[in-house]
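User: Let's play a game. I give you a shape written as tokens, and you guess the letters that built it. Ready? Here's round one.
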């Protein structure tokens, strides 16, 4: 008698993937950034210039960029191993403090004397009865890139961690911690050949070789290919197929803001996933870090591209309804799947 098989419904499959997060490890290589938020209450307009005068209320510093992806993975229950660079300064110390509070090991983070931790300061204004709005952003960047010695330490750390990981997440915001050449050096000894390598690169996506997947937003795709997609679904599909071929990807996730996302997988038809929740985001700061963190975590469990994309979409929909750089917890993701 033939053995009867029972199909698993999509919700149960997604919940099983989330439950599996605690059994996987992900190495994160990238630009560790400090996101600083300075909040002020609007007092009046200056008599010296047509600008608002704000009464200082508070300041918070939160890990951003690759460091935000690290915290998102930790919040999802994943064992995360970060590799990157910070300076011997207050922003760097606050990033490492946040890692410790989430029980994230920081032995792979180089603390370089004289190096300025990349810091993005956002000034937000509002009143006690209104939503605070971003007025201006000030970026403080290191004057010099990590030197050859720092690069060697980074490469060695990733090689060591990747052998004990189920995936490698590469977060390149253009600050020099990770480059196509560094990833090529890491791959040279086969340390990451057996695990998926997921890429989030702001400016040079096409320069990376040997990655398994990528999660660009539509604007980054347009810039990489030199095209304008707009709201044309055919152009979007063609752009996705072009990236899959050019980069020899196994999976690709193109995020499209209020239009949701489109997932591409080798050998499968593209899948459009509508935005989860409201299409009126409160704050999109760091949403891309949440998406790639969730997508990578799901793929590390062995999930399909479509299932991983659906979980990433849930996570993105949750985080854009929070103010500032934020994370999504494992329980929030479970609740979103159950409620949908």
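Assistant: Ready! My guess for every position:
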């Amino acid at each position: 008698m033939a053995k009867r098989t029972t199909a698993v419904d999509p919700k149960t499959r997604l919940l099983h993937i989330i439950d599996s997060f605690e059994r996987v490890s992900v190495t994160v290589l990238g630009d560790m950034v400090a996101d600083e938020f300075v909040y002020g209450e609007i007092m009046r307009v200056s008599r010296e210039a047509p600008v608002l005068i704000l009464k200082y209320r508070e300041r918070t510093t939160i890990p951003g960029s690759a460091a935000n992806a690290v915290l998102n993975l930790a919040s999802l229950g994943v064992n995360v191993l970060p590799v990157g660079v910070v300076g011997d300064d207050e922003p760097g110390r606050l990033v490492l403090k946040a890692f410790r509070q989430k029980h994230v090991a920081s032995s792979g983070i180089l603390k370089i004397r004289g190096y300025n931790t990349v810091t993005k300061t956002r000034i937000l204004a509002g009143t006690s009865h209104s939503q605070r709005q971003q007025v201006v952003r000030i970026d403080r960047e290191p004057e010099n890139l990590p030197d050859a010695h720092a690069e060697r330490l980074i490469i060695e750390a990733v090689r060591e961690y990747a052998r004990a990981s189920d995936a490698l997440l590469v977060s390149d915001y253009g600050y020099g911690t990770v480059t196509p050449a560094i990833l090529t050096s890491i791959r040279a000894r086969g340390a990451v050949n057996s695990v998926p390598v997921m890429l989030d690169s702001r400016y040079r996506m096409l320069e990376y070789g040997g990655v398994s997947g990528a999660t660009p937003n539509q604007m980054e795709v347009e810039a990489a290919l030199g095209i304008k997609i707009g709201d044309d679904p055919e152009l979007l599909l063609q752009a996705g197929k072009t990236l899959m071929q050019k980069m020899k990807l196994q999976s690709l996730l193109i995020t499209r803001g209020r239009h949701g996302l489109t997932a591409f997988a080798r050998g499968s038809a593209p899948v459009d996933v509508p935005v989860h929740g409201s299409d009126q985001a409160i704050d999109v700061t760091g949403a891309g870090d949440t998406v790639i963190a969730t997508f990578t975590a799901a793929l590390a469990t062995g999930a399909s591209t479509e299932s991983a994309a659906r979980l990433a979409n849930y996570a993105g929909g949750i985080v854009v309804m929070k103010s500032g750089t934020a994370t999504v917890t494992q329980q929030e993701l479970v609740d979103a799947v159950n409620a949908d």
